Amino acid sequence: MSRGDFYASPFGAAYSAYQERPWLSRIIAGTVWGGDVRPYYESMGAIADVAPGSTVVDCPCGAGAAFRALDPGKKVRYVGVDLSPSMLRRARKRASARGLSQIELLRADVAQIPLPTASAGLFLSYWGLHCFPDPAAALAEVTRLLRPGGRLVGSTFARGDDTLRQRLLIRPGSGDFGAVGTAEQVREWLGEAGFSELEIRRSGPMMFFQAQRA
Questions:
Q1: How many Cβ atoms from other residues are within 10 Å of residue 21's Cβ?
Q2: In whole angstroms, what is the distance from residue 18 CA to residue 28 CA?
Q3: What is the pTM for the complete model shown?
Q4: Which of 8, 80, 107, 125 is most buried, by the most CB atoms less than 10 A from its CB?
Q5: What is the CATH number of the domain that holds 52?
Q6: Residue-wise over 130-142: b if at least 16 C-beta within 10 A, else e?
């Protein structure tokens, strides 16, 4: 998911802090990226729709921004997965502060998540697809983990606007960026992984997507 622990840095701390504050995240997204990040927070409502007893996988979970949508009393298994030890430490603190005892945290690569096949009803993948070195392999693992009819909800950065802002900020292979795809490539990756009923919204270089495992 990231090379080394990229988020064990002042940037990682700042990123975690503003992700926890939607009002600040909206300002930064508009000013820096030229997009509206509200669909990201709105899509977390999918967590509330999960049936009791289901498994939710959140990868990369980061510092646990999506934890805000999980009710402490909801009887689900919520598995947060990330490759960054510093992000997992932040996520553990956030889960504890919110009283979320149903959260488990794992350090693992997105292409090899140690969970049973067809075990999840919902897979969250926020701001991870553009970081992965092999997005197609990552989505194949998501497909393996989701039961038939299971739901994928996520967000990513995409290339293709060809604006000066995008060329300066989105640089594949630098920082935490990996194989950043175009919007059309993201659609192709999702389709090839076996997802249907795609819902995609675009705001600047940000893409927000939902899909169902066929």
A1: 12
A2: 8
A3: 0.94
A4: 80
A5: 3.40.50.150
A6: bbbeebbbbbebb
